Amino acid sequence: MNGDNMKTDNNPGRYHNPVKRGFFPDPSVVRVGDDYYMVNSTFQYFPAIVISHSTDLVHWEVIGHAITDPEELDLSDIKDSHGIWAPDIEYENGKFIIFATLRLNGDGTRGNNVLRRQLMVTSEKPEGPYSKPVRLEIDNIDPSLFIDDDGKHYMLISPGINLVPLSDDCTTVVGETIPVWPGTGERCTEGPHLLKRGKYYYAIVAEGGTGYGHGINVARSENLFGPYEPSPYNPVLRQFDPKAPLQRCGHGKLIEDANGDWWVLYLCGRPNKGHYTTIGRETALEPVRWLEDGWFLINDGKGPSIENIAPKLPVMSVKEWIRDDFDDEKLNLNWEFVRNPSRGNYSLTERKGYFRIWTQDGTLSEIRAKNTLLRREQELCYTAQTKLEFNPLRNGEQAGITCYYSTATYVRFSLCFEEGRKLMLVINRNQGEEVMAEADQIPDGAVYLKVETEYLTRRFYYGFDGYNWKLAGTLENCIYLCDEGVPEDRKRHTGTLVGIYANNGGCGSRIPADFDYFEYRNGDLSHT
Q1: 3-state DSSP call for residue 505?
Q2: Does 150 qualify as catalytic in the annotation?
Q3: What pLDDT, in 10s, does the model give residues 119-166?
Q4: Is residue 8 assigned to a domain?
Q5: 276 and 343 together in one domain
Q6: Confidence category of residue 491, pLDDT binned at 50, 70, 90
């Protein structure tokens, strides 16, 4: 099934939004020559701060992460949807500079009650490796870098736009925070950026919250420190049509392309059969037009577009990542672990051609669970499957496929030992685990597991040869796998990912689960 959620490029002169599909929120972008580099939030996932490259602003390829050493970023006890928020990327004097907020728990753990601090890393290569993170003890959110005409460096920080004077190498705060614009008065003024064009400084913020009232507002001043005059065209971007396929549109950054044309990359969400953003917040693109009065319009004030005229830039070819046979010595860059991985308890080399996970304590409902390996869902309809070799012998031992939102909400389809070898389909919708279906008399040897996702319905199949499939169970109305479906779980900013896992359910064992491959196909719901 291709459906209405599939991205098509049958007209090379046009593009479809979102341009970066799946869990890629809070985009920031920089141009270096004819190349464009984008960073996105990763929250509790690791490696942290995903970096993508493009030549045309439409087709993006993940090339690296800003933090790849678990010893440099401890996310082991970070709550769901905390962690890395709203990174920003800039380029100066041959170096890429990335800022991000580290959202901590603020509950007294690790010996302090700090809620947020800012991190800064640099590299001469966009893909990295990046320097060890520098900590800037500013307890707010959404940092970005602005370098004024006089060469002075400032970190912008929310709420509103506040300037934090920095040393030239951006490693030290050298002055008091200076408030310059609080925003228009709407709620949740965040995602600040400053742009100098002509005689004006343009202050650009996201307002209205990250839900369905999200938008972008702008103000300008001839003086860096204000006062700032709000644009008469505000909000310059907001979705006013509640039935439109793109919602939650805001938090954007402007970029001038190599031809002198202007664009904005911003976050959005695609509702899934109602106000349920199962995929999470994604990245979209719109043209920007400067007016004679010095203000700008996004998409000529028409709001977010599903299809638009593509930038007149060299088209970039990106191969769709469908299958991982685990033949390489390093994981594909599109994989993410939930929090820091446990080194020594997973391997790509222990058994060549397999991804091996040794079971550890900690279930999917616990923050301490390790080595859950996921990739982003990209469409509202897809098929994912794997081949698993696993020999559980003690109650609690389990391995399989998971559709994962958080420790509070997920689905797992697992080969288990529960008074015998069986397959279990289990959900957690913030109410603890519930067994929805199970199959026993599972013979020794390899088991193939598959999930078919069709909007809010998820069907789970198993087999023993990779061709003949048996339906294990169907889950309807899976609204708990989205940002909005569990309102009592307040911080939900990520989206659903799909992948593989293994743990011992608390029985203390350490046995291997070997995954031969993982395949993901957008829109393919054939199970014959």
Answers
A1: coil
A2: no
A3: 999 999 999 999 999 999 999 999 999 999 999 999 999 999 999 999
A4: no
A5: no
A6: confident
DSSP assignment letter at 173: B
SS3 171: coil
Same domain, 333 and 193: no
The total of other beta-carbon atoms located within 10 Å of residue 370's CB is 24
Q: Where are the beta strands (DSSP E) in 93-168?
A: 95-103, 116-123, 134-136, 141-147, 153-158, 161-166
Q: Kindly write down the DSSP assignment for every residue of 322-350, as one continuous string.
A: -EE---SSS--TT-EEESS--TTSEESTT
DSSP state of 76: T
Strand partners, 196: 201
Given 275, 305, 335, the domain boundary residue is: 305
Q: How big is the chain, counted in residues?
A: 528
Q: Across residues 177-206, what is the average pLDDT?
A: 98
Residue 370 domain boundaries: 323-522
Note the pLDDT tens digit of each residue in 408-431: 999 999 999 999 999 999 999 999
325 assigned to active site: no
Using CB atoms within 10 A of its CB, is residue 176 exposed (0-12), middle (13-18) or buried (19+)? exposed
Model confidence pLDDT, tens digit, residues 76-116: 999 999 999 999 999 999 999 999 999 999 876 655 688 99
Rounded to 5, what percent of the chain is helix, strand, coil? 0, 45, 50
Q: CA-CA distance, 235 to 36, in Å (whole number)?
A: 26
Residues 331 and 465 in one domain: yes
CA distance 43 to 25: 10
Please indicate, yes or no, if residue 3 is contained in any of the structural domains.
no
pLDDT of residue 528 exceeding 90, the answer is: no
CA distance 171 to 52: 24
Sheet with 48-54, edge to edge strand ranges: 28-32, 35-40, 48-54, 61-67
In 3D space, the residue among 448, 326, 465, 469 whose CA is nearest the CA of residue 387 turns out to be 448
Residue 178 lies in a domain: yes
Alpha carbon 135 to its chain's center: 22
Annotated catalytic residue: which of 56, 190, 336, 379? 190
Task: List Cβ neighbours of 243 (8 Å cut-off, separation of 6 or more).
Answer: none
Which positions ≥6 away from 230 have C-beta within 8 Å? 184, 217, 218, 219
Torsion of CA 437, 439, 445, 451, to 10 degrees: -30
pLDDT at 361 over 80: yes
Q: Are residues 217 and 333 in the same domain?
A: no
Pick the closest to residue 44 from 499, 493, 377 (CA basis): 493
pLDDT score at 109: 63
